[in-house]
Amino acid sequence: MDAKIYLFVDSTQFKGIKLLVLYNSMTGAVEPFEALENREVKMFTCGPSIYQRPHIGNYRTFVFEDILQRYLEYLGYRVIRALNFTDIEDKSIEEAQKRNMDVLELTQQYADIFYEDIKLLKIEPPTCNPRSSTSVDRAVLLIQELLKKGHAYWYKGNVYFDPLTFEGFGKLAHLDMSRWPRVKRRFHRDTYPGDRWNRGDFIIWRGYKEGAIIYWDTAIGRGAPAWNIQDAAMLLQTLGLSIDILAGGEDNLVRHHDYIIATTEPVSGRQLARYWLHCAHLLVNGKKMSKSRGNIIYIDDLQRAGYTGEEIRFFLVYGHYKKKLDFSHDRIKKTSLKLKQAYGMINTIRNLGTGMHKTDNAVNELIMRLKRDFEKNMDNDLNVKPAFDSMLNTLSGLTELAEKSRVTPGDAERITAVLKSIDRVLQVFGQSLI
C-alpha cells in the first residue's frame, strides 16, 4: 500500500462555493460531496465483530461515523445507514467453543453491550442492523453469480475467489497487482493477523465438514458463508450494491474493503461506493491496544474513572479522524476540562442574558460567527477540533460581553438555539443547553 500525505483543504477552493468536502480513500484526494440521489445518502459502516467486547479504539471509528451521519443530516440530507454485525466468523466460532456456548448466544451478549455503549456515547442507532447469520441467503446469491461469471470456483467442498479474474482488484488499497503471484495459493481462514496481504485466492464459502457447529442447508449445499462474503451479503440485504459512502477503520484497507469490492462489483457491474472514508487508529500511550500489552480500555473503565458519556465522546472526536489519536489519562482529563469550560461559558451567557433590550452589534457578529466558523471547519472534511476551538473562542467573547450586561435575553436565546443546532452534530453539550 502506497504511503500518502494527508493535507487539509479549504472547501471554498472548489468553484468558490460553500460545500462539504471529504477525503476519499479510493482516489487519495479531498473531493466535494455529491449524493447519488439528490438529498438521500446511503451509507454502510462496518460494525463490530461481536465475538468480544468493543474497546475505545473501536468506538473512535463508530463516533466518527456518527459525526459524519449527523453532519450530513445537519446539511439537510436524509441518511440511510446500515451498520453490520459480524457474528459467524472464525473468531466467534472459536470463542464460543472455548466457552462451551452457542455462537449466536455469545454474539448476542456483545451486541447488547454495544447498544448500551452507543446509547451512552449518543451514537445514533443505525437505520439497518444486518447480521452475517441473517443474510446467508444473500451470500448464496452472490456466490452463485460469482461462480457463474468465473470469479469464484469450488475446491475440496469450499468456494474461493480468484482476485486475478477481477480487473479492479486492489484499487482501494492501491495494490501493485504486477507483484501478485500467478502460482495458485488459497487462504482458508476468514481473517489473518497483521497488515500483510494474502497474495492468493480467498475463501467465500466453507462447505460443511463433520463437527461444524454452525451451518445452513442452501441452494449450493450445506455450509456457511466465510467472512469475506458476509459484508457484501449484508449490503445486498439492506442498501443494495451501489451506495454513496462506505466507512470504517483504517485497518479495513488491508484485505477487507477490497474484498467487498471484489465480491460485489463483478455482480452488479456498478461502482460499489462513491466515497470511502477510513478513521485512523486510537493508541494508548503511543502503543497499539492489545491483550498481550494489557492496555485495552473499555467504555466502562472510563466511566469508573469518573468520565461522562459526553466527555468520552468529546475525547474521541476532538481531533481529525484521519490522524491517529493517542489516549492517556492526562489527555482525556484535559479535553474534559475544555468541555467543562464551554459548559461554564454557556451557563454564564444564559444566566447573565439580561439588561440591554437592543442587540449589541458586537454580540450579533459573534452569534453569526458561531455558526459560520462551525460550518466552515466541518465542511473541511469534518475537522472537529478547529470547529470546536473556534466556537470556544467565540463563546469566550460572548461571555465577556454578557458579564458587561451587553447580552439581551433574546441574544441568549439565539446563542442557545445556534449551540443546539451545532450539538445535533457534536452531541457533547448535554444538560448545559436544557
From TrEMBL:
Keywords: Aminoacyl-tRNA synthetase, ATP-binding, Ligase, Nucleotide-binding. One of its GO terms (molecular function) is ATP binding. GO terms for biological process: cysteinyl-tRNA aminoacylation. Its EC number is 6.1.1.16. InterPro entries: Cys-tRNA/MSH_ligase (IPR024909), Rossmann-like_a/b/a_fold (IPR014729), tRNA-synt_1_cat_dom (IPR032678). Residues 33-335 form the tRNA synthetases class I catalytic domain. This is Cysteinyl-tRNA synthetase. GO terms for cellular component: cytosol.
